[in-house]
Amino acid sequence: TLGIVLVTVALNGARLFQRVRAMTLEQWGYVVLTLLAGGLRFWDLGLKPLHHDESMHAYFSMILFQNPASYQYNPLLHGPFQFHAIAYVYYLASGLGTPDGGVTDVTARVAAATMGTLMIPMCYFLRNHIGKAGALVAAFLLTISPTFVYYSRFTREDIYFASFIFITVVALFKYSEHRHLRWLLIGLGAFTGAYATKEASFFNIAMFGGILVGFIAWELGSRLVYPLAH
Description:
The model has no long low-confidence stretch (mean pLDDT 86). By secondary structure, the chain is mostly helical. Helix content is 74%, strand content 0%. It is globular and about 65 Å long. The chain is built from twelve helices and no strands. The protein starts with a helix and ends in a 5-residue tail after the last helix.
């Protein structure tokens, strides 16, 4: 994974440098907020011992890491996304030679901290809907929110689910705005991640489905009642 990232940066270094030079003050604001969010979420990540739920998730992720064929879905623990994500962090940490074979309180929380940090730059794509200032304020509030910071440092399914749903909403807004296939795929991928994270996704299916049915009814109704408008 690290090798792929390094090769990608090396091959696109010139283009990346041009993009950085062309960044606006607003875009640099998101960079600063994302770095601040990462600092708040990753700083001294192993300070507290694992909570009871965290210990179960960390343990079963360790079992999956040691024996990938051992995983079985258990609705009491939710999943399977978080177990595979944490096991993958264990795998990377083990390859880097970290203590305890890559399995520590810190590595158990890295995936959660990463997902919590990724929520910040996603606010940038809401600028056309809530305004530039509104999107920056939303990013700032997500950055310093005690609730989001806490759950981003907590190896449970909560922050994964919140992040996936947030990305789904942003992607669907962008797709409705531009009709670009990539946003539809991002939205579907994020919702699949939410579905693979927690059973509460069924409630989201009902909510999003109801809204989608309403939009379809409006679209079809307008075409029938006002055909010349299309």
